[in-house]
């Protein structure tokens, strides 16, 4: 029996070392060599300073910026430590109330009629609550507000959006999308920061 306990403990130590130390170290090393940007969080830098991640949505509330998808992550939203959806069902009164408020706010911000159709990704949070992308429809809906705030033409805004569209993954999965952080950085580089 002592021999079996010794073998079990020896195996536990060896496997813990191999799977708890060597394997993660090897995978981290391979990731750093093969995919350094992704392994370090896909951080976006501007003038040498980190401004966000391509993978995590941020709250852009200024009228001169494209607005992101709403977030249910954390108490105030956009909390990467509290990633997760609201888990509210379609008949939940809290969800209906928040969507109604968002619809009203989007229509007011963008000068839209009460009957205007609003893309779902501007009023509903994603499963993670941190989706960094919006649909082309959501971006194009905001063009008039952006053009007015930035004192540029609608055509300039539309061209900027069209350059930022990312195709489906592997040409098959998901929908075409636009990363809001990169779109807003491109907007800043086109016309200067919103003051």
Describe this structure in words.
The structure is a single chain. The chain has 195 residues and is mainly α. It has 2 domains: 1-40; 42-191, no CATH class. 47% of the residues lie in helices and 8% in strands. Strands 3-5-4 form a 3-stranded antiparallel sheet. Strands 1-2 form a two-stranded antiparallel sheet. α5 packs across α6 and α6 crosses α7. The longest helix is centred in the first third of the chain and has 33 residues, at 2-34. The radius of gyration is 23 Å and the shape is elongated. The model has no long low-confidence stretch (mean pLDDT 89).
Briefly say what this structure is.
This protein has 195 residues and is mostly helical. The protein has helices at residues 2-34, 36-39, 93-109, 136-141, 143-150, 154-164, 180-191, and strands at 43-46, 49-53, 133-134, 165-166, 177-179. The protein has seven helices and five strands; from the N terminus they run ααββαβαααββα.
Tell me the count of domains.
Answer: 2
Structural class: mainly alpha
Counting DSSP H or I runs of 4 or more residues, the number of helices is: 7
Strand percentage lies at 5-15%
The amount of helix comes to 40-55%
Strand order of the largest sheet: 3-5-4
List low-pLDDT spans: none
Distance between the termini: 76 Å
* Overall pLDDT metric: 89
Overall spatial form: elongated
Number of strands: 5
Biggest sheet overview: 3 strands, antiparallel
Radius of gyration: 23 Å
Strand and helix order: HHEEHEHHHEEH
